[in-house]
Every structure is written in C-alpha cells, then in structure tokens.
Amino acid sequence: MRPHLGAALTGLALGVTLTLAGFADYGEVHRMFALTDLRLIFTFAGAVAISFVGLGVLARGAAIPRRSVRRSTVIGAALFGVGWALTGACPGAALAQLGNGYVPALASLGGIFAGALIHDRLRARLGWESDACGS
Amino acid sequence: MWFLPWWAGALALGTICVGYFWLTRQTMGVSGSLYRALDWRVSRAGDRDREAFEADPAAVEAALLEATRAEFGDDAAPPPVSPPPAAAPPPPSLSLGVHVTFLGAIFAGSLATAWLRGALHVHRDLGDEFGRLVAHGGRAWLVLAAGGVLVGFGTRLAGGCTSGHGLSGCGRLQPGSLVATAIFFGCAVAISLALGALA
Amino acid sequence: MCPHTASCPLFPRFTLQSALKIWQMKYCEADYKRCARYQLSLSGQPVPNGLLPNGQLLKLRAPGG
Fold first, then answer.
1. What is the pLDDT of residues B51-88, one digit of tens each?
2. Interface test mutation site (partner A, options B93, B115, B156, B165, max chain A beta carbons within 10 A)
3. Position C21 in a domain
4. Domain range for residue C4?
5. Number of structural domains in chain B
6. CB contact under 8 A, C12 and B85
7. Residue B101 is inside which H or E element, if any?
8. Alpha carbon separation from A47 to A40, A84, B7, B14, B168 (Å, rounded)
9. pTM of the predicted structure, to 2 decimals
10. Which residues contact A1 (CB under 8 A, 6 or more apart)?
11. ipTM
12. Please, which residues 22-51 of chain A have a Cβ atom closer than 8 Å to chain B?
C-alpha cells in the first residue's frame, strides 16, 4: 500500500512541478539548453543539490546499484540529449506535455516507446552490454 | 505565462526525488517506470518470480546451501556451527502497479495544474518556438517521433533519464550518472544552439 | 568483476554467507562471463531470481514443507 501511495503522491507532485516550472513548455526548455535563460538550469542544479543531501541521509548504506561509466552510458546519453533538444521531451516532460494538452506529445511518447523496443530487439540480436536491466 | 522561480522548482524537484525514495525505498526514474510498463508482461512475471523468492528467505538460504554442496562438494560449504545470520535481501523491487500509478500520477498532476491555471487547452502544435526552431505542420510530427525514438533508445541504452540519472543518480554521486547527465545536457545544448543559429 | 553485482539478487546472498562465498569467488569476481545469469542478461531477457551461475535453477521447497 505504501509504495502505491508514495508513487501516487510523488507522481502528482512531479506532474505539478514539471508544469509550473516550465519543463512542459518547449520554449522554456529550449531557452534552458540554448543558455539564454538560466532559470531552469539553476532549478535542476538546485534539485540535484537537495537530492544529494536528502539521499545522503536517507539512503546511507542502502544497497543501490552502483552505476559505473560504460560505452552504453555515453552513447545512450548522447542520443537522449539530441532527442530531448528536438522534442523538449525527456520521458517525464513528455507526460507533462500531454497533461498540458499538447497533442503532438503523443508522437514523442510513441517515439520513446518505439525507441525502447528497437533497442531491446537489436540488443537481443546483437547482445551488446547495455545499462538497461533485464528485470 | 508565469513559471516557478528557480529555488522553488529546485526545492520541489529535490523533495520529490527524496520523497520518492523515502516512501518506496527505490530511486526515482521515470524512464525506468515507463519501460516496466511497456514490458508489462515481463514485469508481471518478474513480480511473481520475486514474490516466490522473497517469501521465505530461510528456504532460499537452505536451497542455496544445498546447491553449493552439490556443485562444489562438502569442503566448500561447511555446515555452519551456529545458525547463519539471515542474508540481507536487496531492496524490494516495485511492482508493475506501482510504476503505472507513478506514471499516471505525473500525467494527472500536470493535467490538474494546467486546468487549475486555466491553461488547459488542446494544443495541436508544440508552440510557437517549436514551430520556429524545429518544424511545423505535418513535418513536426515526424521530427517529434524521430526525436522520441532517440530519447527512447538513448534512455534505455543509458539506463536512465533526467530523473533517474540526473536527479537520483547525481544525487548519489554515481559516476555513471554524473557522466551521463553531463553528456545529455551537453548534447542538448549543442543541438539547441544549432537550432537557434539555423532558425 | 561482474558489472551486474549491484542488481543481482543472488550476489548479496553470496557475500553475506561465508559458506556461499565460493560462488562469488568462482564467478562474480573471476570468470563472470561463464555465469548463466550474466549470459542470459545479455540477451535482454529477464533473469529468474533462482538461476544459479552454473545454469541450475534453485529448488525451493514448498512453504511449510
């Protein structure tokens, strides 16, 4: 019960925050990446700092998978960055775009699902080392 | 359109990331949740398999010792003199239902916010800036789909997105996440500067 | 060292029990590419919790048995 409640509350809060902060607005996201408006950059940096403090306290000793740097990390991140700049949609923002009534977000979300499927199919065939867990 | 000042957004996002961990014992990651939902059949089977495995740690312990003896012989697995300490299981994975709830809540939260602001309209395009910088009309949909494929493929390959690597991973100072975040931000900046220059 | 140790459900059980450490020594810390779990994970398919590195499935007795 508790995980469901936690997921629901944080999910709602995330949807609210992404919308109010402007992550669902392509213009705002573009201004962040084009470095013409640093508001969202400070937002993100501040969020990381708070997460660092909070997780440092709560997650001390917790067995969280250690993420090292691999080729898949680098290539995947690069592809993601390009896609994000084009669509304004990181996965969370895509959902927020949809919630804000942007119908074209369906194309972005569809692409995200397709991209994941393509990755899995190719990986099954070629067997490369990926950061995606099986389970 | 009014948007949150940076410190308010930072406070909110940081609290959400920490709150998610506090309440679920797992690190937050939207792409991870999204792919669990996409792979729902596999997720459901995994949930059931995990339940059976975590239901009785003592039985798992006994079965492991038995298998160890069978594989390596008695010398490798001496019978414990005193009752062995219970093995600490890895943090319980969240079920498919929890992930779907999370995703649905993000959508619901943004929907409710847009509506309460009086800003909920059906937008047939992604806004003026998108139209000016990237594409408009029918081509916009193609570009968005292609961009989405890059996001989907990339986040799957890298094992995380803005929340997974950016917030949770960097918050934990995970080397992989720090590098991933720097790279996806860097690439996004490069592309956006190019789009601005070409517009 | 196997790159999957942090997310593997068997690894913590190997490390916490001295009697089981031999699995860790022979697979996780050594020739992890021989591990059946690692090989299955490369195919992208989910790895059953009870799959041992030698390819055998753990036989869990029925609860109460």
1. 877 788 788 888 888 888 888 876 655 555 444 444 45
2. B156
3. yes
4. 1-49
5. 2
6. no
7. helix B96-116
8. 10, 19, 9, 4, 10
9. 0.85
10. none
11. 0.93
12. 22, 24-28, 30, 33-35, 38-40, 42-51
